[in-house]
Specification:
- The protein is of the alpha+beta class.
- It has 20 helices and 16 strands.
- A four-stranded mixed sheet has the order 2-1-4-5, with no helix packed on it. A four-stranded antiparallel sheet has the order 6-7-3-8, sandwiched between helices. The chain has a three-stranded antiparallel sheet with strand order 9-10-11.
- About 35% of the residues are buried.
């Protein structure tokens, strides 16, 4: 007699699972964890986390995240496994259990952008990645309810643009001194015991996190112990780093209540006003402290240095500076760089500003130089390629960089870059036709499109020309900072799905489709969330005559697209 299929031996294929039902059930649990943590109910938080981690639904989502959705899904750990069949995914789901033996991570060195330095990544094996994703599903809602409002790095629904806007709001009415600080080798030096004490979670999760921290790392064929730090590259590592640095802003606000601060009439202001006058804005391990009094900022540096010692960390002297936003201070010029932006203030007449100064945020000169060198390198590498191939390679680079800086004063930088790139394109074109005149070359590779008389574009009979995007055509749109206490786990899905379409780095096409779909996936009817991988899909595949136009396009989750393409064989573009 045959045994009946159990819940752990599914009778359906992986792609046929009711993912909509799974996601709704898990998110409902996460929302309850968030609410319990928000009201300080530790007992309910631990009980709900235990329920979630035992959930077969949550285990399926964790496995899908590391085997299908994550960009690093094809990177192998020390076991050499980098992709799983649907049947293997089910086996992994059934084997996911806290307390399993942990394998060391595999060290991979990747270059730091704009420098010759390299930073290490620790790649866990696929089983540990899935288990980390499961634990993160349980821990993240608890900590999202507790994280400080001005922490922006490695958090769902928050970006570097929110950090830049927070800085602008802090200094737009008054020039301030700034402590521009960086923590030395933050991820490599976090004290394990201090982190576990701060994590303050259930014994089961604590033992599992400790095992990951102490797992060791394989560099080539040599095993190195890990007595400190959190390995970059793990699914849970960014969350652990944020937990380690949690409390910096609260410590600074406590100090703010003790400072001497008077209003224009000479009276002492309330402690709430004192707290607002002093800001700490953090993105991962980079942070700035802003206040109008230099002695306050200097004292904050001492306080933060002492606070970091408890986590085994220290400030990096070479990257920690004290400057002023409007005037020079010592040998330092006005303004500072943060996350690739230059932030400074300029004196202006009363006609231009009531305060007598203006806050101007622009792309930093260093980032402009790095971007130009990358574009020039692509042109050089494609000197023998056709114009179509060059345009296809350059457009995403130009669009991505321009979109990143589209929330600040970037028009002058955009125009300058376009002017620098033109001679490179001209040299590329003339090299291909050394015996032709400049006029002939210009007519072949440049044409008039719309109001642009010098569009670098193809000339193809019967087809629309393929055109190189210019930086200057990118619209400047002010970014709206995320609400300080808002979280993707608070249940306000309309707010979060609408913000996705307004994100500076989302392309115009994706933003238009998100708005048309009201932030929902047309396949599963679930609202898109910040961590979701999205794809532009053709409703009618191009192989069957579907056109590349808005009425034939839709945005889907990557996994939803996998289900759709299993039926129609279409190909989507990952966004």
């Amino acid at each position: 007699m045959k045994k009946s299929k159990t819940r752990h031996e599914p009778m359906v294929e992986w792609s046929q699972l009711n993912w909509c039902k799974l996601e709704k059930a898990v998110f409902k649990l996460q929302k309850r964890i968030f609410k319990a943590s928000q009201r300080g109910d530790v007992k309910a938080t631990r009980r709900l986390q235990k329920t979630l981690m035992k959930s077969w639904y949550a285990k399926c989502l964790a496995v899908r995240r590391v085997t299908q959705d994550n960009s690093g899904k094809n990177t192998a750990g020390v076991d050499g496994v980098k992709s799983l069949s649907p049947a293997a995914r089910f086996r992994l789901v059934n084997n996911l259990k806290l307390g399993a033996k942990v394998k060391p991570t595999r060290r991979v060195w990747i270059p730091k952008p704009g420098t010759e330095e390299k930073r290490p990544l620790g790649i866990p094996v696929i089983n540990d990645r899935a288990l980390q994703a499961l634990v993160k599903l349980a821990l993240e809602p608890e900590w999202e309810a507790r994280f400080e409002p001005n922490s922006y790095g490695f958090r769902a629904g928050r970006s570097c643009h929110d950090a830049i806007e927070a800085i602008f709001l802090s200094i737009k009415k008054k020039p301030k001194f700034v402590l521009d600080a960086d923590i030395a080798k933050c991820f490599d030096r976090i004290d394990h015991e201090a982190l576990l004490r701060k994590l303050n979670t259930s014994p089961t999760i604590r033992r599992q996190v400790r095992a990951w921290l102490k797992a060791g790392v394989m560099d080539g064929k040599q095993l190195f112990p890990t007595s400190e730090g959190t390995p970059q590259g793990g699914v849970i590592s960014p969350l652990l780093a944020n937990i380690a640095l949690h409390g910096m802003e609260e410590r600074i606000k406590e100090f703010a209540k003790t400072i001497e601060l008077r209003n224009h009439k000479g009276y002492q202001v309330s402690w709430q006003s004192k707290a607002k006058s002093l800001s700490l804005i953090r993105y991962a391990d980079d942070f700035v402290i802003l206040h109008e009094d230099i002695t306050v900022v200097q004292r904050c540096r001492e306080i933060i240095s002492e606070w970091l010692k408890d986590m085994g960390l220290e400030l990096k002297p070479s990257k920690t500076r004290l400057i002023h936003t409007l005037n020079g201070y010592g040998e330092e010029k006005p303004g500072f760089h943060f996350l690739g932006f230059n932030i400074r203030q300029h004196l202006v007449g009363k006609y231009h500003s009531k305060q007598g100064f203006k806050t101007i945020i622009t792309p930093s000169k260093e980032k402009q130089k790095i971007h130009y060198e990358r574009v020039a390198s692509i042109i050089e590498d494609h000197k023998a390629a056709p114009q179509v191939a060059l345009i296809i390679r350059l457009n995403p680079v130009i669009t991505g960089w321009s979109n990143y800086y589209s929330t600040v004063v970037s028009k002058a930088a955009y125009s300058g870059l376009d002017n620098l790139i033109y001679p490179k394109l001209k040299a590329w074109a003339q090299r291909r036709h050394p015996n032709k005149s400049g006029v002939w070359v210009s007519n072949k590779y440049w044409q008039t499109i719309g109001g642009d008389n010098w569009a670098f574009a193809t000339r193809q009979k019967g087809q629309n020309p393929m055109r190189l995007r210019s930086h200057a055509e990118t619209l400047i749109v002010r970014h709206v900072k995320v609400k300080g206490d808002a979280s993707p786990y608070d249940g306000n899905l309309i707010y979060w799905s609408s913000r996705m379409g307004e994100h500076p780095e989302v392309s115009t096409r994706v933003a238009t489709l998100l708005k048309a779909q009201k932030g929902k996936c047309t396949h599963c009817q679930l609202y898109f969330r910040e961590e979701d991988v999205l794809e532009v899909d053709h409703k009618i595949p191009r192989s069957k005559g579907g056109k590349d136009e808005y009425k034939n396009l839709q945005i889907l989750h990557k996994h939803c697209h996998d289900s759709k393409t299993a039926e129609d064989g279409s190909v989507a573009k990952c966004v």
